[in-house]
Design brief:
- The protein has 8 helices and 49 strands.
- It has 796 residues and is mostly beta strands.
- It has a 22-stranded antiparallel barrel. Strands 6-11-12-9-10 form a 5-stranded mixed sheet.
- A hairpin with a 4-residue loop joins strand 31 and strand 32.
- The longest helix is centred in the first third of the chain and has 20 residues.
């Protein structure tokens, strides 16, 4: 087996760097990185700004909410150059944005809770836009947002099933009562060109409307030496209209419509990371060596003497020493060159609509309705190896179909009653939630093109999954004393899931529809104590579940993978979390601290596996979803900062996550599998930063400099690296970012900034595609190289 080395020296440096940085920050008695320091006209700090979050479906101070949250406001999104989904990982340690097949194949992971590609499993971390679940199929641009909130741990009581790891809440900027706007452009390396704008118009005292847009183009940063294409090109355009109607103080209706068109190319899992050589084993487990055997001189044993030379003559771009040796060649040419033998086109359209109505029935009771609708379409060719051999291709060479297609339609509605009683000692919420979702999937595939010796095998999976969800919930918080509150909540969810095989399916069209109903409770019980005006503590326990379903690429038999079918059961979880929050002064300087420690138990963990494609059902299936018996996760999360002077702020965010399968034994199609270690979960991750607000006169404008370093330890992109999928550990890495800005230049509406990301040009990986059990190889997704540029904006 050949693979990219993990780099023990770099791992040691990372561990030492995180430890020393954390100790330095703690010695300063730090404060939450979610707290933005406000600088006055003469550069004097006005202290930490109160951050308002909506983690409990109402506006509350971050420092008084019993949940581990990273909250990022509009100003911080700009200061930290957080422009897209993958940037969030750099701002919220403990959140992993995994790229399985590149920059447009993103999966959120928190506290070891994730969703595997091709599993059919719903994400364990749900993203919401204005309280409506997102169904987008591509990476997105962040523009004109009010805030982003990352909620960690099970959120099932208030946000529903599937949020076993957490939730990410995106809130768009609302129309205001001022006529205002801005234009902003960014120019940078790789021919970056971006234009962003907003215009807020007041129609009358009751009606206002807000328009916002973002358009970005950028060249790719991975060169395909076979096709001449660039991987990672961006061509994304998005627009949003928000309409607010408030005829009285008691009634408000806000409608938000957003349209996004995405083009460009996928980066894919384009770095050939590891390939198993014939006869190789690992920890006593025999490895699948099919790819390494057939795409090399070993082909002569199958096709007779001269077979390999005949293959090379028919495929002039192939690497003559073979696939196993190509791992060394990939290391030689580096991470930003690939020899993927086909295209990497990505096309997508996303449409979303939300309508939120709030009516204050009286001073103690509010009625709220949240209506959401969305449509997402993607068509994506995805590199899955990066070597000049067709071991797997997202195309069916027989039918001519090319690109994985997903069409998702969703409509949802949620009605809430929020209020208070018992002289304000009881705050409560009760609600009903409904969602219907239809997902059409087309997965064309080709395997092992060893022609003219062995012809390729092609297959297409084509299926539709319908979900209908109904849920009722309630949660209340009661003030036992002025300082102590007790919180309890419960939710019950019914989910009906149906799968239908569609006409383009090669083998499975005509199979009878299958359906199943999953129903489970979610619950929460917690105790909160406002120990002092500055110190808030809490202890809570929660339970939730991730709905079961069907894996559309597995054989259409209503049975679990153990019995050769496509059904998988619900995943259940419970946790205990203790937290401490501080917001006040230390040594006369504004400071705050958020600290959380937790332990979580997960049963029937939904994980994908890829049996031999020549197994049951022929090539109709390569992916099945197993329920792994048990997993445990425990860890500590910290967010802290301090305004050391009126012009200097330090901060740190860090996460320690210890995840393991405590029972990882499953049987699939009669074959025993052992899961572990847990994938997509670095044990250590963190950010340290410093920000300088230069003490300039108001007539000059505000000049600010911010620099930060993100670092994380090793992580696996497989969940079976200890047995059948070795060579899937990605090395640790460190990234340095900086931004120098000058706002309201000389008292005008003009602003300018210089920004840079990955300033040291670190070469690193952000995920991968493991096909160890199916084909005998693994590929990694490459992170972005150094990016820098100039930003100019004008507010009016």
């Amino acid at each position: 087996m050949r693979r990219f080395p993990a780099g023990p020296a770099r791992r040691l440096a990372l561990s030492a760097g995180l430890s020393s940085s954390m100790l330095m920050a703690l010695s300063l008695t730090p404060a939450s990185s979610a707290v933005a320091q406000q600088a006055g006209a003469e550069g004097e700090s006005s202290g930490p700004e109160e951050v308002i979050v909506t983690a409990r479906r109402r506006d509350e101070s971050l420092s008084k909410v019993p949940i581990a949250i990273t909250a990022i406001g509009a100003a911080q999104l700009e200061d930290r150059s957080i422009r897209t989904d993958s940037d969030l990982q750099l701002a919220a340690p403990g959140l992993t944005i995994r790229q399985t097949q590149g920059n447009n194949s993103l999966t959120y992971s928190i506290r070891g809770q994730s969703a595997d590609t091709f599993s059919g499993s719903p994400s364990a971390v749900i993203a919401y836009l204005n309280e409506v679940p997102l169904t987008i199929g591509s990476a997105s641009s962040f523009y004109d947002l009010e805030s982003v909130q990352v909620l960690k741990g099970p959120q099932g009581t208030l946000f529903g099933r599937n949020t076993t790891g957490g939730a990410v809440l995106y809130t768009t900027a609302k129309p205001t009562d001022k006529n205002e706007g801005f234009l902003r452009t960014r120019l940078g390396n790789y021919d970056l060109r971006e234009l962003e704008g907003m215009a807020n118009l007041v129609v009358n005292d009751a009606v206002s409307v807000r328009f916002a847009f973002d358009a970005i183009k950028r060249e790719g940063y991975i060169d395909n030496l076979v096709t001449g294409d660039q991987l990672g090109t961006l061509d994304r355009k998005s627009g949003r209209v928000s309409l607010s109607i408030k005829p009285t103080d008691a009634f408000e209706n806000t409608t938000v419509f957003q349209y996004t068109d995405v083009g460009g190319t996928n980066t894919g899992a384009s770095y050939t990371y590891s390939v198993y050589a014939p006869g190789e084993t690992h920890n006593g487990s025999p490895l699948n060596t099919s790819a390494g055997f057939l795409f090399g001189p070993g082909l002569d044993f199958v096709g007779g003497a001269g077979a390999w030379n005949a293959y090379l003559a028919a495929h002039p771009d192939a690497y003559a020493p073979g696939l196993v040796d190509y791992v060394n060649e990939q290391r030689r040419i580096g991470p930003y060159k690939t020899r993927h033998p086909a295209g990497a086109r990505h096309e997508g359209k996303d449409i979303s609509l939300s309508n939120t109505t709030t009516f204050e029935i009286n001073d103690h009771l509010t009625l709220k309705n949240i209506l959401g609708a969305s449509k997402s379409e993607t068509d994506s060719e995805q590199p899955q190896l990066g070597a000049p051999f067709i071991t797997i291709l997202t195309a069916n060479l027989v039918t001519g179909e090319s690109g994985n297609e997903n069409d998702v339609d969703s409509i949802s509605d949620e009605i809430q009653l929020q209020g208070e009683a018992l002289d304000g000692r009881l705050e409560y919420i009760a609600g009903y939630y409904f969602q219907k979702m239809k997902t059409d999937t087309l997965w064309p595939q080709t395997y092992f093109d060893v022609s003219p010796v062995i012809p390729p095998s092609s297959v297409t999976n084509n299926f539709r999954i319908r979900n209908e969800t109904n849920a009722v919930y309630t949660q209340g918080s009661y003030g036992v004393t002025d300082a102590v509150r007790l919180t309890a909540g419960v939710r019950y969810t019914w989910e009906d899931v149906e799968i239908e095989q569609l006409p383009a399916a090669t083998y499975t069209y005509g199979a009878p529809n299958e359906s199943e109903t999953f129903k489970d409770p979610s619950w929460e019980l917690g105790l909160e104590w406002q120990a002092t005006d500055s110190v808030f503590t809490y202890l809570k326990t929660r339970g939730s579940f991730r709905s079961g379903g069907f894996n559309g690429s597995a054989p259409p038999v209503k049975a679990t993978a153990t019995d050769g079918g496509n059904l998988f059961y619900s995943e259940t979880t419970k946790d205990v979390e203790a937290g401490l929050k501080f917001r006040g002064d230390v040594g006369g300087r504004p400071a705050s601290l958020n600290l959380a420690a937790y332990k979580q138990w997960v049963e029937d963990v939904q994980r994908v596996e890829f049996p031999d494609p020549d197994g049951p059902g022929g090539l109709a299936s390569i992916a099945v979803t197993a329920n792994v018996p048990e997993m445990q996760v425990q860890g500590v999360e910290l967010e802290a900062s301090i305004a050391a002077t009126s012009w200097l702020e330090f901060g740190i965010s860090a996460a320690y996550t210890d995840a393991e399968f405590t029972d990882g034994q499953v049987s699939l199609f009669g074959t025993d599998y052992s899961y572990g270690p847990v994938g997509d979960t670095p044990e250590r991750s963190g950010v340290v930063y410093a920000q300088i607000d230069f003490p300039t006169p108001g007539s000059v404008g505000a000049i600010k400099f911010r620099t930060e370093m993100y670092a994380q330890s090793e992580q696996y992109f497989s969940n079976a690296a200890a047995t059948i999928a070795p060579g899937t550990e990605l090395p640790s890495y460190e990234l340095v970012h900086a931004r120098l800005s000058w706002d309201e230049i000389l008292g005008s509406g003009f602003s300018a900034a210089l920004f840079g990301k990955n300033l040291t040009d670190e070469e690193y990986f952000v995920g991968g595609m493991t096909l160890a059990a199916a084909l005998g190889h693994n590929a990694a997704a490459v992170g972005e190289p150094r990016m820098y540029g100039l930003e100019l904006s004008y507010r009016f």
